[in-house]
Design a protein that fits this description.
Elements: H1 2-15, H2 19-41, E1 48-52, H3 54-57, E2 66-74, H4 79-93, E3 98-101, E4 105-111, E5 114-123, H5 137-147, H6 150-165, H7 180-190, H8 193-200, E6 207-209, E7 223-225, H9 241-256, H10 273-283, E8 286-293, H11 299-319, E9 324-331, E10 355-362, E11 370-377, H12 381-392, E12 400-405, E13 408-414, H13 420-424, H14 427-430, H15 439-442, E14 446-449, H16 457-468
Enzyme class: transferase
Cofactor: Mg(2+)
Binding site for ATP: 54, 57, 140, 160, 169
């Protein structure tokens, strides 16, 4: 433990905000709060403002520059008026800000060098009475503020720095990682960062934590942390099985070999075309890429649709015998790289747009002209007769059989697609389960096969490096 304690001590030095940074944050938040109260005073309804999130609780990683202010309106205020008054306050406080949209619009801007979200919500009595997802955030803040002392707050910062370093932090639907709220709940529940990683290394999913002992319903996620303010919600619902496994892997790694590098985020250098070709020569597989214009939507809409579309492409390739080895959805470097993690229900990710690629490595690019199709055993009379008769009268000269192989009828029939390109460029490829906003762009797709994928390096170099140089 001595080595681990030394590493964590050094990490604290650069991960925890210093006195100057905290004071700068405090004075900026206070000025924003005063401006917000002044704007509220001009409204025909009562409201108040509360600062929430990690910067309100002292659990932000040094260098993070987010201030979240929530304007709480009466619970009986209708949605249209809440949006109208909320935006009026937001634009008054942040005149150069812009509107973004979660379940309702809010204003985002920059003030004093800090990124500011000014979000309207309903002042409901309990989190379970929420009218929109953002209404629960002030309850999260109040719950954690009562339970996080200075030592635990410092351990939350360590946990967030660790999750950022291993690439598992952020509840946006691109990352599918740990939200800030989830991280803070786990640290509070387990009593610190070291107890958390010591516990995580031995988890056998599904793992459940229920801080307030609600136990009102069953969840089916690999990690369940019942929201102490809303027992109908699993705070870890967005967390993917892969990111939970990643956290476990690096928890074991940290405890076995403590080192600061695990707390330092890695940004992979793009792979160039020559390096891509080197991988292709060594692997002797066939890469294929379906490239199209990404719809201009926020990441939290884009990435679920990309994954759905990728699953459809892989399924289609496998059903036709091309045997996908590995697959990845990619968005052009520099576009749509949103991060999130506050658990508020807001979409904190960046915009989509640019080009997207569904990249699949297949074991074979060509298949024989015929494929085997097995019928039922001859002894299963009713079904066997139907199979036999359906092919016995077939005049297609390219069909072989029916004949008996072992105890069942078999035919060898003409294969619909003999090349991976033929399939991916066909209408059949567009019949897969695509995301709703992917489908129009998919119709105007480009298909690259083999060495031609190296041309993608200019736009997708980081994604290609992650594909060809994978790590936990």
């Amino acid at each position: 433990m001595a080595d681990l304690d030394a590493v964590l001590s050094r990490v604290r030095e650069h991960a925890l905000p210093d006195v100057e940074e905290r004071e700068r944050l405090r004075t900026t938040a206070a000025e924003l709060t005063d401006r917000t109260r002044a704007a509220i005073a001009d409204l025909p309804v009562e409201a108040d403002v509360v600062q929430v999130g990690s910067t309100a609780r002292g659990t932000w990683v040094s260098g993070d520059r987010d201030i979240d202010l929530f304007v709480r309106f009466p619970a009986d205020l209708d949605r249209e008026e809440l949006e109208e008054y909320g935006l009026a306050v937001g634009h008054a406080v942040l005149p150069d800000g812009h509107e973004e949209y979660a379940e309702h619009p809010y204003v985002k801007g920059v003030f004093g060098g800090f990124d500011v979200d000014l979000v309207p919500c309903h002042d409901v009595a309990e989190a379970g009475d929420l009218i929109s997802a953002v209404d629960r955030t002030p309850f999260h803040d109040a719950y954690l503020s009562e339970r996080l002392d200075d030592d635990l707050a410092g351990d939350v910062v360590l946990a967030k720095a660790f999750l950022k370093g291993i690439g598992a932090y952020g509840s946006d639907l691109r990352t599918e990682g740990f939200s800030g709220y989830l991280t803070e709940l786990l640290v509070a529940e387990l009593g610190g960062f070291v107890p958390l990683v010591e516990s995580a290394r031995s988890w056998h999913p599904p793992v459940e934590f229920d801080p307030e002992g609600h136990a009102e319903r069953t969840f089916e996620d690999p990690l369940v942390v019942v929201d102490p303010t809303d027992p109908t919600r699993n705070v870890a619902a967005v967390l993917s099985a892969a990111n939970l496994a990643r956290f476990q892997h690096y928890a074991r790694d940290l405890l076995a070999t403590p080192r600061e590098e695990l707390f330092e985020p890695r940004t992979p250098e793009p792979l160039d075309a020559g390096a891509v070709r080197d991988h292709l020569d060594r692997r002797e597989t066939t890469p294929v890429a379906v490239v199209f214009d990404a719809p201009d939507v926020v990441d939290d809409q884009l990435w679920p649709q990309l994954r759905r579309s990728l699953d459809g492409v892989v399924r289609g390739l496998n059903e036709r015998g091309f045997d996908a080895l590995r697959a990845r959805a990619m968005v052009g470097d520099g576009g749509g790289r949103g991060v999130g993690g506050d658990g508020s229900g807001r979409d904190r990710s960046g915009d989509g747009g640019g080009r997207a690629a569904l990249y699949v490595e297949v074991e074979t690019a060509t298949r024989p002209a015929v494929e085997r199709h097995e019928g039922p055993p001859v002894a299963v009379r009713k079904h066997a007769d139907r199979f036999y008769e359906s092919y016995a009268d077939d005049v297609d000269p390219d069909t072989y059989g029916p004949f008996i192989d072992g105890n069942r009828y078999v035919v060898e029939r003409e294969r619909e697609f003999t090349t991976v390109r033929g399939y991916l460029e066909s209408d059949a490829a567009a019949d897969i389960a695509l995301g709703a906003q992917i489908e129009p762009a998919f119709a105007d797709r480009d298909v690259l096969v083999g060495d031609a994928v190296a041309t993608l390096a200019d736009r997708f170099g980081r994604g290609l490096r992650e594909f060809y140089e994978p790590h936990p």
